[in-house]
């Protein structure tokens, strides 16, 4: 066994030594005549010295990233934003288990603002997993736990692919013989935002992966200098790669129409050569071929999307148009928040890049804004590399500038630019933290410098990723898990997912959420259709005109609950009396389940005084027989910018339904 192992290892070692020797030879040749090497070697061009070594490296990198993001998905136990669930998993649940499943379809799905492609992915996964577990007769509670975890595990694969294509594109640009791609690799590995968001089921997370993969397959030879290109290879000779890029880009645009800004930037720079060096290599035949492929690939993806939307909605519709109409023409996006013009500069980019912000800004400036003339001897880049990086930087800058004009802004909206920030920052973070190698090989060992600074950066990133993923707002996930497991104990015969199986008392409202709307996941975590729950809603004023007084004074259900009442001196009491239980208050009778009184009330601990006051002997609900008892509470982080969500999340038993606590 030992001799066989040694024999197997010898060829691999010899092959690796030969590869390193070839690298040294290429480096010395380029060093002796840099201008000739710059003109003769078009980069980015992937030219593996040995297929076996290159293939093994790619497989190793991908395997490491898949394992890392799988662990990442298991470690993220906190709530970030409701879109993670209500724009993806709720419609996916509806696809997999039908309209009787209890999935919460928000107004965006009722108005066809979203493409069905994203939830269809998770819907098929839900359906396949449920069918498999039904065949294996998996215990219902175990089946529920698997379904709860499954989407993030699926997303972890896309997150790993996003990291992989970031490294791969950096390798294509800077060269396989450079250490710069590894700087991009490590940045995406230890970026806190990546750890916090990449495995979440946001459409922006999938959009980010689709975008960087499309950029990797994009034919960057279109921005090379026609004069210095001496290889004679025709443009767009690799149609398979071009079509992969266009298809991925088209899907990203259909998921998030604002992704079009990235591709418009790249196409405009490619055709106009604005800020790029050298004359364009484009000819009429090349332009025709590119336009033809854009049209063909775009129409193919569009046809698939339209067919998917027809199957999902039941009629013909075009969500990208609806998305733009409601958010731009009707200005409904402002209903969910209006940010200053500098939001992406002052908050968005810093939150995305965190400790790497200085290096990202330097990369954006050097490659995107610097007006210094192209100089291979000073930059170490050939014209193709320089133009590629300039295209990426200018596209990122113009995309941020355009999105800054829109009133409603979120960090997630510029998430697809994060891989570009990593690639642009990579040479500067490498140069700052390493000393030049004394080895003739460009891939030789490098020394570290500014070690204390590097250790601080890594420590900060680790603390941020750990806190945000484990300790910042974990209660919204914990509370729905508590409700689901408690329902399993109380109603073991009502755990079917195939249909809404009635309880022995089918009027029981298991939980009432008196929280800001969409503060917790819904059916994707509650799972069982028979687990009836109600929550405050926040539907936008679809019936009002933009800039009208009616829209300006509109209050959704959650706003009305939290609105300050001058008569009572607090909030909530008037809402509970006039909207939640008006019949019980007026009739002065004991509350019963059939009157809409829940078994549990869920809310942040700030509302406890409101509830106690309402149900007290001097309150409007004194006659309902409600005696609140805390049965569960969950810590929700050190801080929260929303005063309504501060403090612990609490579950109170109303006492309306008798129960025996374990």
Automatic annotation (TrEMBL):
Keyword Transferase: yes
Entry keyword set: Endoplasmic reticulum, Glycosyltransferase, GPI-anchor biosynthesis, Membrane, Transferase, Transmembrane, Transmembrane helix
Annotated segments matching region Disordered: 1-44
Domain of life: Eukaryota
Pfam families found in the cross-reference section: Glyco_transf_22
GO MF: alpha-1,2-mannosyltransferase activity
A single Gene Ontology CC term: endoplasmic reticulum membrane
Key word Transmembrane helix present: yes
Listed EC numbers: 2.4.1.-
Lipid bilayer topology: Multi-pass membrane protein
Main location: endoplasmic reticulum
Enzyme category, top tier: transferase
Annotated metabolic or biological route of this protein: Glycolipid biosynthesis; glycosylphosphatidylinositol-anchor biosynthesis
Segments passing through the bilayer: 246-269, 290-308, 349-368, 413-433, 453-471
Compartments where found: Endoplasmic reticulum membrane
Family: Belongs to the glycosyltransferase 22 family. PIGB subfamily.
Biological role: Mannosyltransferase involved in glycosylphosphatidylinositol-anchor biosynthesis. Transfers the third mannose to Man2-GlcN-acyl-PI during GPI precursor assembly.
UniProt-recorded name of the protein: Mannosyltransferase
Protein species of origin: Echria macrotheca
Lineage: Eukaryota, Fungi, Dikarya, Ascomycota, Pezizomycotina
């Amino acid at each position: 066994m030992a001799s066989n192992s040694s024999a197997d290892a010898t060829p691999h070692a010899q092959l690796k030594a030969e590869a390193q020797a070839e690298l040294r030879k290429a480096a010395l040749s380029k060093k002796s005549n840099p201008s000739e090497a710059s003109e003769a070697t078009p980069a980015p061009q992937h030219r593996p010295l040995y297929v076996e070594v290159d293939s093994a490296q790619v497989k190793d990198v991908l395997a490491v990233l898949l394992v890392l993001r799988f662990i990442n998905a298991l470690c993220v136990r906190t709530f970030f934003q409701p879109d993670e669930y209500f724009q993806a998993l709720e419609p996916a649940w509806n696809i997999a288990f039908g309209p009787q499943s209890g999935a919460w379809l928000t107004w965006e799905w009722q108005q066809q603002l979203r493409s069905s492609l994203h939830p269809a992915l998770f819907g098929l996964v839900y359906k396949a997993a449920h069918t498999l577990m039904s065949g294996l007769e998996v215990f219902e509670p175990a089946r529920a736990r698997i379904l709860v975890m499954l989407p993030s595990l699926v997303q972890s694969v896309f997150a790993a692919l996003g990291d992989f294509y970031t490294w791969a594109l950096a390798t294509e640009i800077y060269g396989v013989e450079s250490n710069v791609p590894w700087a991009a690799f490590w940045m995406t590995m230890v970026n806190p935002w990546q750890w916090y968001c990449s495995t979440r089921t946001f459409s922006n997370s999938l959009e980010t992966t689709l975008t960087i993969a499309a950029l990797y397959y994009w034919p960057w030879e279109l921005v090379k200098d026609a004069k210095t290109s001496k290889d004679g290879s025709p443009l767009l000779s690799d149609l398979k790669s071009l079509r992969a890029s266009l298809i991925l880009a088209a899907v990203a645009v259909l998921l998030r129409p604002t992704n079009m800004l990235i591709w418009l930037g790249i196409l405009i720079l490619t055709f106009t050569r604005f800020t790029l060096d050298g004359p364009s290599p484009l000819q009429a035949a090349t332009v025709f071929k590119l336009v033809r492929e854009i049209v063909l690939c775009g129409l193919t993806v569009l046809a698939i999307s339209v067919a998917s939307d027809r199957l999902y909605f039941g009629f013909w519709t075009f969500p990208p148009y609806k998305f733009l109409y409601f958010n731009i023409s009707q200005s409904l996006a402002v209903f969910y928040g209006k940010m200053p013009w500098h939001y992406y500069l002052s908050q968005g980019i810093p939150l995305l890049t965190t400790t790497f912000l200085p290096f990202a800004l330097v990369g954006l400036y050097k490659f995107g804004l610097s007006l210094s003339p192209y100089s291979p001897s000073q930059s170490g880049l050939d014209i193709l590399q320089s133009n590629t990086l300039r295209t990426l930087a200018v596209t990122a800058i113009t995309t941020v500038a355009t999105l800054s004009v829109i009133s409603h802004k979120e960090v997630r909206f510029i998430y697809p630019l994060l891989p570009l920030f990593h690639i642009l920052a990579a040479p500067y973070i490498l140069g700052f933290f390493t000393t030049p190698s004394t080895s003739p090989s460009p891939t030789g060992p490098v020394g570290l410098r500014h070690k204390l600074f590097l250790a601080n950066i890594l420590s900060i990133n680790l603390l941020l990723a750990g806190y945000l993923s484990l300790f910042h707002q974990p209660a919204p996930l914990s509370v729905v898990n508590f409700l689901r497991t408690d329902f399993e104990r109380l109603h073991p015969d009502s755990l079917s997912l195939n249909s809404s199986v009635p309880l022995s008392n089918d009027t029981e409202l298991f939980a009432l959420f008196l929280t800001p709307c969409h503060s917790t996941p819904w059916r994707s975590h509650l799972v069982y259709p028979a687990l009836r729950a109600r929550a405050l809603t926040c539907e936008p004023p679809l019936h009002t005109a933009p800039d009208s007084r009616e829209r300006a004074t509109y209050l959704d259900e959650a706003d009305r609950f939290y609105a300050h009442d001058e008569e009572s001196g607090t909030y909530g009491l008037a809402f509970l009396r006039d909207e939640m239980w008006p019949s019980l208050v007026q009739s002065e009778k004991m509350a019963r389940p059939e009157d809409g009184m829940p078994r549990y009330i869920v809310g942040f601990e700030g509302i406890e005084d409101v509830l106690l006051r309402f149900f007290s002997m001097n309150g409007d609900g004194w006659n309902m027989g409600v005696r609140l008892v805390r049965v569960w509470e969950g810590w929700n982080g050190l801080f929260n910018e929303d005063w309504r969500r501060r403090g612990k999340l609490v579950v109170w038993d109303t006492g309306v339904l008798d129960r025996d606590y374990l």
